[in-house]
Amino acid sequence: MVTRISLGILPASVIERIEIIRGPGSALYGTFAEVAVINIITKTGKGLQGVEISSQGGAVGNNAIFGSRASVGYNDLSRELDISANIAFAYHPISNRIYEDFWGNTIQLGSQNSWRHFQNISGKISYKNFYFGFNRMNQRWISPDDFTTIFPANNQGMIVNKLNHFMEGYQVGNRFKLSDNFYFIPRFEYARGNPVTSKEIPASNLDENYSTICQRFTPEVSLQYAGTKNQLDFGAGFIANTVTSFARNASPAMIVAAGDSTSFVRRDAYYVFGQYIRKFAPFVLSVGGRYENTFWGNAFAPRAALNYVAPNQKFYAKLLYGEAFRVPLIWQVYSAQYFTTNANLTPELSRTFEFEIGYKQKGNFRISTNFFLININTPIVYLGTVDTYVNFGNIRSLGAELNTEYKVEKWGVFGNISYTQPLSEYTTTDFLASDRSHFLALPALKINGGAYLDLPRFTISTYATFIGERYAQTQNFVLNNDENNPFLETEAYPSVLLQNVQIKGKNIFTNNLQIGLQIHNIWNANYVLLQPYYGGHAPFPLQDRQWFLELKYKF
């Protein structure tokens, strides 16, 4: 099963593979599919086939990290039955360094003031053409950052700004065969959660979405014709978005108009979509589109792609064009979390052009180059100057990426290079560094690479990311910019290399026991998180060197 619900964070150990769908394929997925669709496929019962238990323990500096996971899977090929389930939890501080805001306040991060606690439970079952899946994620964390300044500590020197966010989703559907080539596919999705800024102990009666619960109901039906050379998908659906929110004193907590508030808001949307695929060797033509009618506006998103595969199956090329739109999240519009609200948000629109050419040989070697142009109009962004979400400006970028991979039976290497630049004459100044040649917080150059060696009793692997020079606001801008003296000022942050190393021992002491050692950021590079807007956030320490041991046993 491939879930299409926004489910938050999944533990990497339960992921089987990740699919990225570009072009018209993402027309089937809806309003959040702007540039591409990322499908995360968790492990199946066939892949697990039994019970798997793992535990991890290690440290970030002198602060402990730990976690555990249990997975179970069952597969009966003759009955077309597959069942799998996972449960996991983890605890770790995000840094061991000192954080300093732009006003000179400092705090020692670590297990007291920067911990994260994560829980996840998921499962899925498929029987013939029926499927059901669920996923629930819960995150608790302590935030030392009170938006711009360090959150004041209590008398014991501890931060009490605790946040608690959860999200859960369910999906059920079936694929009924009407004839040899025709199928009827009904499905239903339900998602429920609270905003990521939900505080466990609010500071005031109207503060930070204290009891806000967001829900989304999505019934959908579609028809599919799957022929030898032609495939046609056509469908329609309905989306009901609801938010229920009360303040601590039980009064309504959502602002719907000047001076008016409510405890319940519902906004509906209707959509239709279609996709046609035609195979005429050596080409494959795909066209698709989606029309959505929402409270915030209507939009049509057409998409098209032309794929070419050479007769020798070695060379291939893709030409993609797509339009998409994204409606605002309902709590972004009506939440009383921010002092001012904007009920006039409209969908943001994007256009994407891509061209990819590649070469592959015998499954061992692959290389491809992709060129892209992305244009986003009236993006929905958070502006710290007005404490709310607004449609603001335009973003246009041009870039290219190179991917390569070589693998044989026991070892392999892979790499990726990407370079992106803003088209400054078409991009709003507030998204750019003061030199107008770089996006705020984002590197123009990024390089990923790795290698692995699979021996009979051990597997050794390494993965590294080079992050090029980045730009962010200066302390001078934060302290001195105002209405009477407006200016934008940024400074460069140096390039950084993050490298991870992993060693796994297989069948240690017994045939089913695996022992592994992982070291993240082995060189302890000084990485910081930069904010992609002009506001009050100082660079936040992140990705410190950490190590942990993992024991995994399979029954």
Automatic annotation (TrEMBL):
A Gene Ontology biological process in which this protein takes part is: siderophore transmembrane transport
* Membrane spanning residue stretches: none
Q: How does it sit in the membrane?
A: Multi-pass membrane protein
InterPro entries, sorted: Beta-barrel_TonB_sf, Plug_dom_sf, TonB-dep_rcpt-like
Recall the GO molecular function terms of this protein's record.
siderophore uptake transmembrane transporter activity
Q: Where in the cell is it found?
A: Cell outer membrane
- Source domain of life is Bacteria
Q: What is its main location?
A: membrane
Supply one GO CC term from the record: cell outer membrane
Q: Which PROSITE patterns match?
A: TONB_DEPENDENT_REC_3
Instruction: Please provide the record's keywords in A-Z order.
Output: Cell outer membrane, Membrane, Signal, Transmembrane, Transmembrane beta strand, Transport
Q: Which family does it belong to?
A: Belongs to the TonB-dependent receptor family.
UniProt protein name = TonB dependent receptor
